[in-house]
Design goal:
Number of strands: 8
Largest sheet: 8 strands, antiparallel
Radius of gyration: 21 Å
Number of helices: 6
Distance between the termini: 34 Å
Length: about 280
């Protein structure tokens, strides 16, 4: 019934204010940002920059909430699709763009294009519609910042309802991955997503294998100082999602970060402090 759309249903939706919905946590705080990321990357793939792509995410979210279903628009869905979509969209765009290899062929090319389409539907669909998924040409593009991937694996025991080691204790295998893209201290001025961290956690729990997601990135900032030490000041955005037995939480945050880094030979010591509005 929610998909039986008519002009009357649109008029009804547009005439009432958004409400807070109570759909499943994964749907609201994980699926919606994924779909918002597709809006963002459709714009990015067609030549818009980071700031130019953000209105497409907000417009796409509002279009779906008010015109895409008969249910009352949802405040939390608008926030998650817009804010989370911008954060997840830009991070996946920058990471999956490194998977594009226009010089590859055969199974190697198929693997690259399939990975791009799965992780970044906006860019993947753009490449398919333009015929770029199979067209061979010389790779072009500006030098890209370094990307570091850190992985860890282990187990987690979650106590639910009366202590950890009980008959209700939930045991989970956990795989964690953290991508660090670029280094904000490499230049005097820091632009949107010039450097960011993407953390993904996978575990055996619930309807989704993804139990954790966090994206932290600068929107603007600068560095100063020199020699053995530099200062860092940033306006940052952060999107956070966690779902495990006994804990379901998601944050959308805008805040300020101040940092200091000292270096001596191969050693680096960094400290950062942040404050934000959730």
């Amino acid at each position: 019934d929610f998909a039986r759309l008519t002009p009357k249903a649109w008029a009804t939706n547009l005439g009432r204010s958004p409400d807070w919905d109570t759909n499943e946590m994964k749907v609201n705080q994980l699926d919606h940002p994924y779909h918002g990321g597709a809006y963002h990357n459709a714009a990015r793939a067609n030549g818009f920059g980071f700031w130019g792509s953000t209105p497409f995410v907000v417009a796409g979210s509002l279009m779906w909430e008010f015109l895409g279903e008969t249910k009352r628009a949802s405040t939390n869905d608008i926030v998650a699709t817009s804010f989370g979509g911008i954060a997840l969209g830009e991070a996946t765009y920058l990471l999956t763009s490194r998977l594009v290899d226009d010089e590859a062929r055969g199974l190697d090319r198929l693997w690259h294009e399939a990975a791009v389409a799965l992780l970044n539907p906006g860019l993947g669909m753009h490449r398919i519609l333009r015929g770029e998924s199979w067209r061979r040409r010389v790779n072009v593009g500006a030098p890209r910042p370094p990307v570091r991937l850190q992985t860890d694996a282990g187990g987690r025991a979650v106590g639910v309802g009366g202590g950890m080691l009980t008959d209700k204790t939930v045991l989970q295998p956990v795989l964690g991955m953290r991508w660090r893209y670029g280094d904000p201290l490499r230049s005097a001025r820091v632009g949107a997503f010039d450097a960011f961290e993407l953390r993904l956690e996978v575990s055996a729990h619930g309807s989704s294998p993804i139990s954790g997601l966090e994206i932290r990135a600068p929107l603007t900032g600068r560095t100063w100082g020199g020699g053995d030490g530099r200062w860092l000041g940033l306006l940052h955005m952060r999107y956070y999602y966690a779902s495990m037995p006994g804990l379901q939480r998601s944050d959308a945050e805008i805040g300020l970060t101040v940092g200091r880094e000292l270096s001596s030979g191969p050693w680096r010591l960094a400290a950062r402090a942040s404050i934000g509005a959730l």
